[in-house]
Every structure is written in C-alpha cells, then in structure tokens.
Automatic annotation (TrEMBL):
Keywords: Membrane, Transmembrane, Transmembrane helix. It comes from Evansella cellulosilytica (strain ATCC 21833 / DSM 2522 / FERM P-1141 / JCM 9156 / N-4). This is Uncharacterized protein. It holds the Pfam family DUF5392. The chain crosses the membrane at residues 33-56, 62-80.
Amino acid sequence: MGLFKSETQSSYVKRELDKIRDVIKPYVKKSSLFSFISFPMIIFSIINLFALVTNFALTGEIILIIGLYALMGALGMAFLKESQHLNRKIQHNSFEYILERIKKSDYLTDFQKETYLENMEKSPHKGIAIFSEFLEQEEQRKKSL
C-alpha cells in the first residue's frame, strides 16, 4: 500500500488511488491475516517435528503427536497458498480497474488512451506509476477545458 502514498500527488490522483484501495481492501485484509497466521504455524510445526523425530522413539503417542504437527504444518501451508492466491487476485483486480478507468476517460483522446493501455500491457509492474501519469494528464486536460 506504500505505492499509494506520495506527498507530490494532487488530490485528484490521491482520490483515484483511494478508489483502487477500496476495491482491493477486503482482499488485502484476508491476505495479511492468512500470511500472519501461516508463518508461525509452519515454523512451529517444523521445529517440533524435527525435535520429536530426532529425540524420541517412535511410540504410538509420538506418532499421534507427529501427525498433529504435520497437520498443523499442512494447514499453515494451505493458509500461505491462499494468501498467495489472494495477492494475485489483488494485482488482477487493481490492473483491471486501472484499464477500465483509462478506457472510460472522456478527457483524453483515443490515441492517448491507447498509448496508456499499451504501456500497461507492456509493463504491468509499473501500473501505479503509469496510472498516476495518466491521471495527472487527465487532470491537466480537465483544467484546460
């Protein structure tokens, strides 16, 4: 979310970036929660599995405990995988929002919009910077009309 903060951006650009933030906010919360839960579960289970396997004889009780720690580790891995899935969804939704917003602009020419859309397709990792540039140009165009 740090990409959205900049002191040099106009209020117009900040409002539009806030709209993107609102679109992805529920996914960010879930992804953060799953990541926060998954890492301790995985680490805790690996450490305890290692300690149990190397220090104790394999009795019925130890095998049951090993199974529980393995289950905990698997659950942690599932949470991590879900977090990664949500992160991809966040990127996709923000990218789609930006593309739609550029297409809907009434202030720029079709050629300018196509240029921004092509730049987005070529460099999706620079999406926020390209979108900010688009918004600044749109704002200038709005003011001149």
